[in-house]
Amino acid sequence: MGPFIVASLPWLILAFICWVLAVLLNPLARFRLRKVPGPTPWPLFGNLLELSKRGEAFALADWKATYGNIFKVWIGPTPMWIVSDPDMSSGPHYRKLKGAWTPLFLPASLQNYCTLMDGAACNLAASLLPHAGAAEMNIVPAFEAHVLQIVVSAAFGVDLHLQAGDPLRTAGSEHDKLMHAVKDVLETAGSAKPWATPMILFPALQPLFRFLLHKFPDAATIRLKQARRRLSNFVYGLIHEERPAAAQDKAPAMGSARRTGVKPGSFLSLLISHSQHNVQLTDEEIFVQAYFFIMAGFHTSSGALSYTMYHLAGHPDKLKAAHEEIDAMGAEFKPTLQTLGSFPYLEACLRESLRLLPPVPATQRYARDRMALGPFNVAPGDMLCAATYNLHHDVGLWEKPFDFTPERFMDTAEVGIKRGSLNTFGEGMRSCIGQNFAIMEIKITLIRLLQAYTFTLAPNQVPLAVKARSSPSLLSPSKGIYINIVSR
Ligand code: HEM
């Protein structure tokens, strides 16, 4: 702890200086420091732009259509331009990368992933058996291992054997090391760092920060660099192996046998074949996309799964309704892409849970042009933040916003969802490309778990303790989620 404080001290001082400068020099930053009225359980984003206020929520869609196109994700000491680019949604670079992502979320690919997800969900259900009837269990680590298993398999086509009880899980193996690298990247890149806030608030100083970080890396940055090196060696190895094979296949069939280590149908294999046959992507672009796939798909989906379980376990009547919907399909039911639509109530529980605890509690954009936004004058380059959490709890938009009421997401709901009142997956051109993947993954997992068990929430967890992780911003359970599991 001591060395950590000493190592962090220069950054804290620099952060403070930047904060003061940002407040003094930037009119929008001054606003950012104002407390947003409303229920905001974390300090940073609650103090950002209050776009969630009633009225402005409706302006959100138009505002995004006009100005919303930069989504700069900054990870570690080097900036990473992911599916984004300075030339934004209309730019050729963005279109090129988005074109490479799109095949992954077409029905043929989703069908392929459905099998992968169902296998993982069955393993997860089996791994919970020793906990059934035993003491309460923190489900967050188990759900994280489960989702990581799925995203890594989907991204690279490699089974890392992450789930508890997997007989092929071997400590010290290459896969084990890779798994630790992925976890290190996720933990260190996603955890709050003293320099992250001033970097976000004061983008003009980013080159200075990067230079300082490069010269005087802190412990987290060193760990992140090592993990990224291991991960990049692994991924570049796969790319080099796969490229010649992909060049020979005109159109590699989903599920067809391939000579190399990259499984057909994995995101990596789709990217490589897209790169061979459509638009040329460099090895680095392919690596960054695969890396981002894991970054974007891990904490978001594991959070969404954990929160839905939290809400179901805390509301026995809703859990009963979800159980009934699943039981109606028969004891031997096996989820498929085609049958997933038969669970409207379960999906409503998921969507309501995402409203109450959005894993991405805010989305950001940099303004391209000067504009007046409500009472604020926004200058080009200012970062604007749509405070999703506040939006989702606005009493003017939602009836009893703190209640878990999945029924409001059923088709039969009398009061429809007002336009602009949900920002779970973002809106417009830059909205979440992986949302169908995530919804499918969570529904399949819940179906398998609810087929086998019933759940109750352990005491003293309402409201749930959550924390915001920075860069990228995420809402995570800060003390776990404890559940009692009983076999059905
Ligand atoms: C419940 C799970 C998820 C949630 C809540 C979520 C939420 C979001 C949000 C809020 C954004 C930003 C939208 C905006 O700025 O307007 C986003 C972007 C993105 N997400 Fe997700 N996401 C989830 C799962 C996934 C998964 C599983 C993947 C990939 C496998 C993924 C890939 C992406 C990508 C690539 C972007 C950037 C899109 C672009 O810039 O065009 N997400 N997501």
TrEMBL record:
The chain crosses the membrane at residues 6-25. Its cofactor is heme. Heme binds at C432. It comes from the Eukaryota. Keywords: Heme, Iron, Membrane, Metal-binding, Monooxygenase, Oxidoreductase, Transmembrane, Transmembrane helix. GO terms for molecular function: heme binding; iron ion binding; monooxygenase activity; oxidoreductase activity, acting on paired donors, with incorporation or reduction of molecular oxygen. Belongs to the cytochrome P450 family. PANTHER family: THROMBOXANE-A SYNTHASE (PTHR24301:SF2). This is Cytochrome P450. It comes from Apatococcus lobatus.
